[in-house]
Write a structure and sequence with these properties.
Blueprint (H helix, E strand, L loop, with lengths): L2 E4 L4 E4 L7 E6 L10 H19 L3 E6 L17 H9 L3 H18 L15 H13 L3 E4 L2 E4 L15 H8 L13 E6 L15 E3 L3 H10 L5 E7 L3 H16 L4 E7 L2 E3 L8 H4 L2 H7 L2 H9 L7 E3 L1 H27 L11 H13 L4 H20 L5 H18 L12 H15 L3 H13 L2 E5 L5 E5 L1
Parallel strand pairs: 3-4, 3-9, 9-10, 11-12
Antiparallel strand pairs: 1-2, 5-6, 6-7, 7-8, 13-14
The protein binds zinc ion.
The site of zinc ion has 4 residues, from helix 7.
Amino acid sequence: MLKIYNTLTKTKEEFQPIHPGKVGMYVCGPTVYDHCHLGHARGYVNMDTIRRHLEYSGLEVRYIMNYTDVGHLVHDAEVGEDKIEQIAKAEKINPLDVADRYIQSCEEDFTSLNIKKASFNPRPTQYIAQIIKFVADLIEKDIAYEANGSVYFSVEKFPQYGKLSGRKTDELLEGARVEKNPEKKNPLDFALWIKANSEHILKWPSPWSEGYPGWHIECSVMSSDIFAGETFDIHGGGNENIFPHNENEIAQSEAHLGEKMANFWVLWSMVNIEEAKMSKSLKNQTTIKAVLEKYDPMVVRLWILSSHYHSPISYSENSLAQAESNLKRITDFIINLRLRRWTSKSESGENIIDLEKYKKDFEKAMNDDFNTPVALSVVYDLITETNKLLQNNKLGTAEAKNILVFWEKINKVLGLAIAETTIEIPENITKIAEARKSARQTKDFQKSDDLRKEIEKLGYTIEDLKDNEYQIKKL
Ligand SMILES: [Zn+2]
């Protein structure tokens, strides 16, 4: 039974999909005005692992992550410059080219980190008609109002406002009074549609003004469009956006649908950077691309999975070095098993390891709110037990194969892409292979067979090709 911590109810709840066998998951995506950074790596690796575990559990997951390409203003404000337009103006190019460039960059990073492609990546510039319709509906329902060409959501009309972040409207009001906007009836009201000033590049005609959507409305409109206006199972995102972004999404969607937006709110925590060790250009040093210049992408993925998604993690040389050594342990384990799988044909000692128990423990950890650090400790225990058997030469071929099959299965959840190691063929192996070739030429098949076994004992395999040629591979 899968239990997930639901930020909406602040409790761990049993997960039951709305439609049996299927899961609808919407994750707030990045605003594409810059390269993705470590915080994104963390969040989207976590969400990818959650998705993978749901799939491992036999569920079909519709995984949606948007790319915000309009409406996210500098300082997350409601007036001022759009983050993407700011870059476009500086570079004298079209804002959508800026968005395209960083979407491509982000996808490269995701591929490196072995994050599975989303079922769909909607972008608000492709949903303007739906956004206008949604906003018009909210005005029609008397939940939103127009003022001077902009449209605002009336927070008073949604009494549950604050239910996700736990913020109380009277406390919020204290803070909101400082920044006065005469168009708003209540300082807490937020923009759904913003009238564009003359410098604004991305703008569209609407019943209210030539303008552009507010930042929060896109997620409500796109998720509602994709999930056919129904409640969906899981809404993911970073907990730094719980207020106002996620809170406003709930208000917009639930006022519009008349029902719950999403059953579960699953929010990841932040990455703490050990600033002391970094120089001035901290931002540039913590893009995924910069980090991947220093570390293997799978080291980064393993480092992320070594903490629970709900807890903050620290980016430091020590924590990455730890992940590096753990990844090496896993890689060695796989290489050793591959070797054993092909070399030891007659040994006894089959099924000494209780794989069923490891499977149960792994699943129990993942079913407990996707507890990846505990799931990884199960893997490390398996490695320790396997290594002992290997050292004592007690692991048979069949069992080695079973362990490998088991690893491959649970690694569908962890998503660690561990490549086949390509290595140079050592000279002594080539010498034996040459001797074997001569034996074959003289039709001394007994000797040829013995030499093959010798090569295999040393961890290599030999494949005969045409014209007495051969190919050596590492096992
Ligand atoms: Zn969002």
